[in-house]
Design brief:
heterodimer, A: about 180 residues, globular, B: Cytochrome Bc1 Complex, Chain D, domain 2
C-alpha cells in the first residue's frame, strides 16, 4: 500500500513539475550577436501565436507605438482575423514592448530607430526606412515571384530567418 | 500521516492538471457542439460539414475563397498561409493533434469563419465540420 502511494506520489510529482515547466513564462535571453543577428528572444505566446501564420517577426524591428497599434487591431490583421483572447494579447504586447526597437535593448533596434522618423509607427516592418535601405538592391520583380510570395516571407531568401539569422552569406534568392 | 496526506494531495493535483491538458478529442468536441446546438450527436452531418468546407464565398480582391484556399482541397494534405507558412493537415487521420484542444478549436473557428463566411459559425456548423473531418480516412 505504502509503495503504491509512493508510486502515485512520484508520478504526480513528475506530472506536476513537467506541466509547471510548460506553463511558466519562458525566460527572455538577451544578447546581441553580430551586425545581422537579431537578439535571441524566447517567449512562449509570441512564438506559438505569431508563428502559427508567419515567422515570429522580431520585436526589435518596430517601435513600441507600432506594436501597440498592431496588437490592438488583430481582428483586422492585414486582411485577416488574428484575434486573441485578451490575456494572451496583453502578454504578447508586454513582450513586444519590452524588446521593441526603441526599448534600447539591442543594436539592431538602434539601427532601425536611426532611420525612423519622429513619431512614426508603421504597421509593416517592410515600411520602415531601415528595411527599405537594407533591401534597396533587390529588384522589384523578385518580391512577387511565386516562390517568394511577398516581402513578408523573410525565410524565402533568408534561409535561417527562423533562427534569427539574417547574415548576407545565408541569403539565397529563389527562382 | 502528514506525509501520506501530502502524497495523496500531490497525486490528486497531478491528475487534475493532466486532465486539464489536452483532454479534448474530436468526439468530445462533437458532443459539446451538439449540446450547444440543442441536437443529439447523431444529428451532426458529415455531408453538411464537407459542404461547409467546399462552399466558396466572395473574398478580397473579388476572388472567391473557401477553406480549401489555405487548407487545400484535401484535408489530409498540409496547407499554406497567405505568407507561405505550412499549415498542418486538418484531418485527425493525418494529424492526430487536431481537435484535441477546445480553446484552440474555438480560436480558429472564430477567426476563419469571420474571414471566409464574414460571420461566426454556429455550434451546429462546427459540429458538422468536425463530424466530417473525423471520418476522413
Amino acid at each position: 500500500m505504502n509503495y503504491l502511494l509512493r508510486g502515485i506520489g512520484v508520478l504526480a510529482m513528475v506530472g506536476t513539475v513537467s506541466l509547471l515547466a510548460f506553463s511558466l513564462p519562458s525566460g527572455e535571453a538577451h544578447g546581441d550577436g553580430g551586425e545581422d543577428v537579431l537578439p535571441r528572444l524566447a517567449h512562449k505566446n509570441w512564438q506559438q501565436e505569431c508563428a502559427s501564420c508567419h515567422l515570429a517577426y522580431s520585436p526589435t524591428l518596430l517601435p513600441r507605438a507600432s506594436w501597440r497599434r498592431l496588437m490592438n487591431g488583430l481582428d483586422q490583421h492585414f486582411g485577416e482575423n488574428a484575434s486573441l483572447d485578451p490575456a494572451t494579447q496583453a502578454d504578447i504586447l508586454r513582450f513586444l514592448e519590452a524588446n521593441a526597437a526603441d526599448s534600447g535593448n539591442s543594436r539592431m533596434g538602434n539601427k532601425v530607430m536611426q532611420r525612423m522618423g519622429a513619431k512614426k509607427a508603421p504597421l509593416r516592418i517592410t515600411e520602415t526606412q531601415w528595411f527599405v535601405h537594407e533591401h534597396d538592391e533587390v529588384p522589384r520583380a523578385v518580391w512577387s515571384r511565386k516562390s517568394v510570395g511577398s516581402a513578408a516571407n523573410c525565410a524565402a531568401c533568408h534561409r535561417q530567418a527562423e533562427q534569427g539569422m539574417f547574415n548576407e552569406h545565408d541569403i539565397k534568392i529563389p527562382k | 500521516m502528514i506525509k501520506r496526506v501530502f502524497k495523496i494531495g500531490l497525486a490528486a493535483l497531478g491528475m487534475v492538471s493532466v486532465a486539464a491538458w489536452g483532454a479534448d478529442t474530436p468526439a468530445s468536441l462533437m458532443a459539446h457542439y451538439a449540446q450547444a446546438a440543442g441536437v443529439p450527436v447523431s444529428a451532426l452531418s458529415a455531408t453538411r460539414g464537407a459542404a461547409l468546407y467546399r462552399t466558396e464565398h466572395p473574398g478580397r480582391n473579388g476572388q472567391n475563397i473557401n477553406c480549401a484556399s489555405c487548407h487545400t482541397t484535401s484535408p489530409k494534405q498540409p496547407g499554406q498561409t497567405r505568407v507561405g507558412k505550412r499549415i498542418e493537415p486538418l484531418a485527425p487521420a493525418a494529424n492526430p493533434e487536431r481537435f484535441t484542444d477546445a480553446a484552440k478549436v474555438e480560436k480558429w473557428f472564430r477567426r476563419n469563419c469571420q474571414d471566409v463566411l464574414q460571420r461566426e459559425c454556429s455550434a451546429q456548423e462546427k459540429g458538422d465540420f468536425i463530424a466530417w473531418l473525423s471520418q476522413v480516412k
